[in-house]
Amino acid sequence: MSSILTTTACWLLVIYLALLPCLAQAEKDLFIFPELRTLRINSDNSDFSDTYATIDFFGSVRYDQFRFLGEIFLTEDGIEAERFQLGYDFSALSTAWLGRFHNPLGYWNTQYHHGTYLQTSISRPEIAKFEHNGGLFPSHVSGVLLETGHDINNDGALDFSFAAGTSPELRMGNDQSTSGLVLHPRELFSTGKGNHKLSLTARIIYRPESVQNNQLGFFASQANIKVSDSSIETIDLKIAGLFAYWQAQNLNFYGSLFYSRDNVNSANATDKGSFTSGYMQLDYLFSSDWTVFARVENTSGEKTDPYLALMSNFSPEAQVTGLRWDITRQQAIKFEISRKHTGTEEPVTTILNWAAIFP
Fold it and tell me: Which of 22, 79, 130, 163 is deepest in the core (most CB within 10 A)?
């Protein structure tokens, strides 16, 4: 861990010194997202409780047509460089990025980051979980990201994203919160670690009113995943889906639907399968400071799919409800309770957290 910290610090220092002459004239933003969380998990076989803190640093720099975006996530276990992107604006609506970024797969993965303050709920949907938390699909990609937009009609707009880069490797997890095989994206400053193949993703978003966040979208992705610590050699994933976000007065609705076809390849055979998974969440703002939310998640085809048989940290069905209190314009306290259905048991998770944004 110390070598990773040292390498990360050295790279950040080199980049800072290289950009120092430009920083004085550049547009800069730095946001800090601290969180304190306590949780309890009750299941038929065991009970578990924990309290921990995290800090998410999110920064961006814009100088002329050049851009930089970075995100560093600190936990009790160490530090992770989650995003590190260098960009160039070809126009006001078109940008090319190089580095490690969030895969434009669905809605949640690019709308919210590792800090939980911006999202209404505490937890992410199962299908949108990050890799190290037991997620099913590539959340972080190292490569090239192209983003462009096009205004249509009087108010509407179309946004296009295309990502090409390295897929994660599937190997045994090294985190206490997960067990079994876990996806591991390419590490930013340890590029030789792991065996990473190709991931491709395309997404299109229609915004009927460009000044608001209401949107409808479609996405498609293909990823070839190398497997270690198993008799399986590779996994081929083909993913497609729809998503929506809609705000009407005091109600916010958002959801995504994923369809995945997978080939699980061993030395002598290929097992094929498919499954569908999605979520819907509704937020109701019954005052300026209080929001109640509920989310349902469900999956079909999970019992016969060979890829899901490997992913023991995924819960195919869940119900989530909770309450958010914005105690100030920059701080919130949230309470959430959920029941997940793993196939063998139905653990109930209760979470209380404090989340904030500074400055």
Answer: 163
